[in-house]
Amino acid sequence: MSTIVPENDAEIRKQDSICTNETQIQHPSWYNLKYLVVGILFGIVFVKAEIISWFRIQEMFRLQSFHMYGVIGSAVVVGVVSVFLIKKINIKTIYGEQVHFDNTPFNKGQIYGGLLFGFGWAITGACPGPLFAQIGTGATVTVVTLLSAIAGTWVYGLLRNKLPH
Amino acid sequence: MIDWLKQPWPWYVAGPLIGLTVPTLLLIGNKRFGISSSLRHLCAACLPAKIPYFQYDWKKEVWNLFFVFGIFLGGIIAVQLLANPLPVAVNPALAAELKTYGITNYDALIPIEIFNWPALLHPKGLILMVVGGFLVGFGTRYAGGCTSGHAITGLSNLQWTSLVATICFMVGGFIMANLILPLILSL
Predict the structure, then answer these.
(1) Closest CA to A130 of B32, B50, B110, B120
(2) Which of A38, A43, B26, B109 is 20 to 30 A (C-alpha) from B37?
């Protein structure tokens, strides 16, 4: 499969400026296995802390349990401190690169899209990460939910220019 | 040790571990923790259909697909080796409400009475899985990120735009779970 890389490649990728790859270093593809390992550990935490549980999400949105607020809140605190330290003492990546941060500019999609995702989150009891983990736990029908999410992403791409941003 | 690992993990163990994913991905390769982008990369790889939004070099983002495949494998490992033998514990108020919709099985982390293959043939199952999934994919891309990209990575970087997105996720969830989902579950 050959992909033609357009000149404005980075610009297109940054249309959602979250999750863009900023490294300039080229590595052999097996280097990606380290992300597989991080993903495995992350998936285990997802299941064992019941973050992938439809019931836990319902409790969260009914204010019936502190669990999910504790998980997200403590994750953010650890994230804030980590990012602060990386910036403050200028910690480099293991390859000696400067760690890069981008700020996301505001657009109305964060409101409209945010609300739509909130609806989907409460219905399916899953954000995108838990969908992958749920399939792993044997809930095979979640494949349908995942394929629908991919379809939703594709339709967004199709309609992007017609939507208010 | 293994017995302890098999119990559901408390939030103060899981939350910090998830938070540590942010610096881990940054420091092992300058990668931003975010999951919903993987769905975009899958579209770009499999069905770009000349849509400008999918015309980019997805191979640069292949790490993200390794990461989500890892999450899938993590799910397998967690149930095979560390499964909790007890039913899922939920708030009694929730259990009482769900009982009115016929949901009484707590063997799995998702209610198997409403999330199963035959249920796809009914309007309720179709809304829960197909429409719900569509909203997750469409909404996260429209918002430019999901719980991981906005609520965790974005807030870690103190981005106010991610706070806006996170508040909207929660508002949408509260509206759906309390006002609309009861109607869907009653179908």
Answers:
(1) B110
(2) B109
